[in-house]
Amino acid sequence: MTALTLSTSSAASLRADAVVVGVAKGPKGPVVAPGAEAVDKAFGGKLATVLETLGATGAEGEVTKLPAASGLKAPVVLAVGLGEAPAKGDGFDAEALRRAAGAAARALAGSKKGAFALPVEDAADAAAVAEGALLGAYAYDKGNSNGAKNGKDAKDAKGDKDKKNNGPLAEVALLGAKPRDKAYKAAAERATALVAEVNRARDLINTPSNVLDPASFAAAAVTAAKEHGLKTEVLDEKALTKGGYGGILGVGQGSDAPPRLVRIAYTHPKAEKTLALVGKGITYDSGGISLKPAGHNETMKCDMSGAAAVFATVVAAAKLGLRVNVTGWLALAENMPSGSATRPGDVLSMYSGKTVEVLNTDAEGRLVLADALTRACEEKPDAIVDVATLTGAMVLALGNRTFGIMSNDDAFRTALHEIADEVGEASWPMPLPADLRKSIESPVADLANMGERMGGGLVAGIFLKEFVEDGIAWGHLDIAGPAFNESGPFGYTPKGGTGSAVRTLVRLAERTADGDLG
């Protein structure tokens, strides 16, 4: 992962491949942001004028490169847009800093060192810039024969180095920070630990399904658990059969790669609260017998994004030493059509004892989650949050960058929404209308896995609620939109797996540890 260093050096004196400065949209043109004073001085106080001449406006995410003026140790100045300039006396908000730092880090791919001279007034600003830069520097290269070659190793690659796969920015030097200040050091350490786990989730999501199946996903969790002192339990197909996990087994029975249920747990000796996280882990979703149409299969390796987020969050809690118990449940299966696959009209006996008529085998995520939710409830956690790329209906409702939040507790739903907003993950609270419950009634089972088509994302939430024990606060994050970015990268968000919900879940764990959630 990209290295992060804190520096009190001047932007003019630090040696780097490029110095990054911020530029905002002012009422009369671009305005150079605080932090770039030394760079502006090297340009005779006319950096904003030069940038405007080059077409820069200060718009969010806009990147402008120009040769450095004499007096600067870095040969290149990279100006990145911060958006609208704040009112006098106000600073830039954290998300603007994250996105700008991320865009700059992406633009410096292949460089050894970038000196980031963005506005940093306090440790919170430093945390935002560090987080954004590290997130933006991400690159998935495990499937590319040249992608892992960087630095010295790149010289050994056959032919010219592929400029599109020349590795991420190697080092972020954060200027204006205070290396010896406890708050700044803590901010840097948290950003490094957090982004490493977001990137773990991204790597898992981007891994092809022929490489990552339920068994190998479970093995990755066991390996990480050993490294970070976590406890794991893996239920294979025999244990799932013995335990009566009909939902997970029903989804996975059409595949040659059998399903798994993984429990991965972090405990703190002084914890007063326990948080349970449940992740949908469909390592490939063909739709099963209810086969997806052409054009909808190519990105279905990402259908395990929820489980990746849960896995990463538990490891992050351990790295950060949070004073809370965090237990992750990874419901892993591959949904494939075959002679042994579950058929539309089949009835499954779930772990809870309830029966479910499967009307559509492509509504499989709720089936594996239902078993995992029931199992998680048996440990009586203080709260449960499930995370899933669950419904196309949520994408239709909220688009590709916003996830939906549902809950059996209005206060908990509000808290989740506020936390997501705080960390910069777009979300929206959604209802669970009582009138939609009737649509999942079945004449041959306790429930059907499908209901009304309109409001399908809400129907899925209502189905899951049936498997949550009364008295336990539960939240459901439908990340179907933002989990996988099929368009171009933006801000600190890469193309492909995004690691959606990890930052929200980690902040939830922190607030729970601090006693902020009651």
TrEMBL record:
HAMAP family registered for this protein in UniProt: Cytosol_peptidase_M17 (MF_00181)
Broad class of enzyme this protein falls into: hydrolase
GO cellular component: cytoplasm
Protein localization: Cytoplasm
Disordered: region residues: 146-166
Residues engaged in binding Mn(2+) 2: K280, D285, D303, E364
Protein name from the UniProt record: Probable cytosol aminopeptidase
Functional description taken from the UniProt entry: Presumably involved in the processing and regular turnover of intracellular proteins. Catalyzes the removal of unsubstituted N-terminal amino acids from various peptides.
Co-factor: note: Binds 2 manganese ions per subunit.
InterPro entries: Leucine_aapep/pepB, Macro_dom-like, Peptidase_M17_C, Peptidase_M17_leu_NH2_pept, Peptidase_M17_N
E.C. numbers: 3.4.11.1, 3.4.11.10
Gene Ontology BP annotations: proteolysis
Start-end of Basic and acidic residues biased regions: 150-165
Residues noted as binding Mn(2+) 1 in the record, renumbered to the chain: D285, D362, E364
Gene: pepA
GO molecular function terms attached to this record: manganese ion binding; metalloaminopeptidase activity
Organism: Streptomyces botrytidirepellens
Family: Belongs to the peptidase M17 family.
